[in-house]
Each structure stands twice: as structure tokens, then as C-alpha cells.
Amino acid sequence: MTILYNDRFVDRENIQVDIEDRGYQFGDGIYEVIRVYGGNLFCLEPHLKRFARSAKEIGIDLPYTPERLGERILELVKKNNLTDGTVYLQVSRGSAPRSHPFPANSHPVTIGYTVSAPRPLEALQKGIKTILTEDIRWLRCDIKSLNLLGAVLAKQKAVEAGCQEVIQHRDGMVTEGSATNVFLVKDGTLFTHPADNLILHGITRQVVLELANELGIPVREEAADVDDLFHADEVFVTGTTTEVSPVVAIDGKPVAKGVPGTITRKLQQAFEAYIG
Ligand code: PDD
């Protein structure tokens, strides 16, 4: 498999991560996951923009422009003959003797690789089960940081409960999933947490908000509380690998009738048309 390593293409076997890479030791870096449908990168531009923003927010100076990076990713997809799957992209602050503050002269280390993966058709059709869990993450969830321990622990809890995702809440207000944004429908209106510091500003979330507008579905970017969630007519989650997945159960209780709702289905159809 060919990997993008800084600005070069290298075989995976020829790459080594240094023991003092700050991504490895501190989670000091940021990442993106970009979907590939039929060999085409989906929403490449907003992903590159968010990558650059995350890097800037943690003071990593990228030694390339988003355009250059975009070209390299396109080449990577071609080199690996990827049809359906994802591109994983990350940049760490680089390697330096272990010490918390930014090192004086480290160089960012960028890697990108492709993963072949089908669309999550079963989840899209049948929906997913979730559990509610307290959001114990930091207060800059808008940065797509490599520090994913909060998400890892949350997702593990879901798996142990026989579920596919968590719905996190902070002091009773619903934030997002472990790797998804959360939406609920009540009386025909779509609710989702505002794009502030408590959630990742999901690219799928943004696409869904635009599609909802086009379909004339009223949208309110307002945090719902846990009680609203349990009384919702429909709940769904969105994400690069999840697309628009209906939530059919939370903590073992069915969402409404326990089957995907009509507005969720409408948005799924619109999303399907959008990805082409
Ligand atoms: N996760 N919220 C969180 C915390 C996420 O990690 C993600 C994406 C999303 C959805 O964002 P988007 O629609 O831009 O993919 C929301 C990726 C897929 C991951 O970590 O694998």
C-alpha cells in the first residue's frame, strides 16, 4: 500500500513512527477522515479547510497549502486504486525530546493512507442502537484532535452494551456521538447542537442541514436535553463513515416506534442523491 508521508509517496513497510513523535506521545496533532465514493473524494474542500483550521487552532504551521494537499490526496487515491472507502489524514507536531511545551524546532509529520470500505448499508436500512453516556471530553471538541480517548472509552461502552454508537450529554444537554453528530426530530422540526466548541462541526452535519433547507424541513441549531431525546419522534446520527444512520433505540428503549422515521428517510434519500 502506498502512503503519503509528508510530501512523498512511500510503501507502508518503509515508514517508521519515531518513539518521540508528539502525535504518538501526546496526541499532539489533528486528523481528517474523508469518504471516497466511486473513486471520487466526497466534500474534499470542506475537509481540507477543517484540517487547516484544526492545525491552526493548535499552532501547527502546515508546510503546504490545502490545494497542494488536496492534489496529493487525489493522487494517493489513484495510486491505491481506491473505489469505495476512506482516506485517513493526520499531521502531528513532529518529533522532539519529550517535553510538554511546543519544541523550538520540530517539523510537522503528515501521513495519509487509504482504507477500502463499503457503505454501511445495514445500519442505513435497519438503524442503529445507542446508549446515552456522559460527555467527559475536553472543551475544544471543534478541533479534530488526535486525542480520542474520550471517544474510545465511550464507543467501547456502546460495544459492551451491544450497541453501535453512544449519544453523549454534558450536564443533561445532548452534544454528539463518539464519531457522529446527533439530530432529533420533534413535530416536524429538526434539532441539532449548535456548531460551537462542544461538538465537531461535522461535514455530513452541514450537508444534512443544507438538504433539510432544500426540502423545507425547519431546522433549529439548539441543544436538546436528554428528556427531549427520549420524547423525540425520530433520532439519527451523521458522519463520514455513518452517513445518515437512523437511531432506533437509546438505552434499550425504542425511539418512537423503534423503526427509522419518515424525515430521516427523506434526508437519507436526499443524501444518497447528493453523493451521486
Ligand atoms: N469522525 N463528531 C465527532 C466527534 C467525530 O469524530 C466525527 C467524525 C463527526 C462527524 O463528522 P463528519 O461528518 O465531518 O465526518 C462528529 C470520523 C469519521 C472519525 O473519527 O473516524
UniProtKB/TrEMBL annotation:
Record-linked InterPro entries: Aminotrans_IV (IPR001544), Aminotrans_IV_CS (IPR018300), Aminotransferase-like (IPR036038), BCAT-like_C (IPR043132), BCAT-like_N (IPR043131), Class-IV_PLP-Dep_Aminotrnsfr (IPR050571), D_amino_transT (IPR005784)
Enzyme Commission number(s) of this protein: 2.6.1.21
GO molecular function, one term: D-alanine-2-oxoglutarate aminotransferase activity
Domain of life: Bacteria
Keyword Transferase belongs to the record: yes
Cofactors demanded by this protein: pyridoxal 5'-phosphate
Enzyme class, spelled out: transferase
Pfam families the record matches: Aminotran_4
Catalytic activity as recorded in UniProt: D-alanine + 2-oxoglutarate = D-glutamate + pyruvate
NCBIfam families reported for this sequence: D_amino_aminoT
Entry similarity comment: Belongs to the class-IV pyridoxal-phosphate-dependent aminotransferase family.
Subunit organization: Homodimer.
Function of the molecule: Acts on the D-isomers of alanine, leucine, aspartate, glutamate, aminobutyrate, norvaline and asparagine. The enzyme transfers an amino group from a substrate D-amino acid to the pyridoxal phosphate cofactor to form pyridoxamine and an alpha-keto acid in the first half-reaction.
Name used for this protein in its record: D-alanine aminotransferase
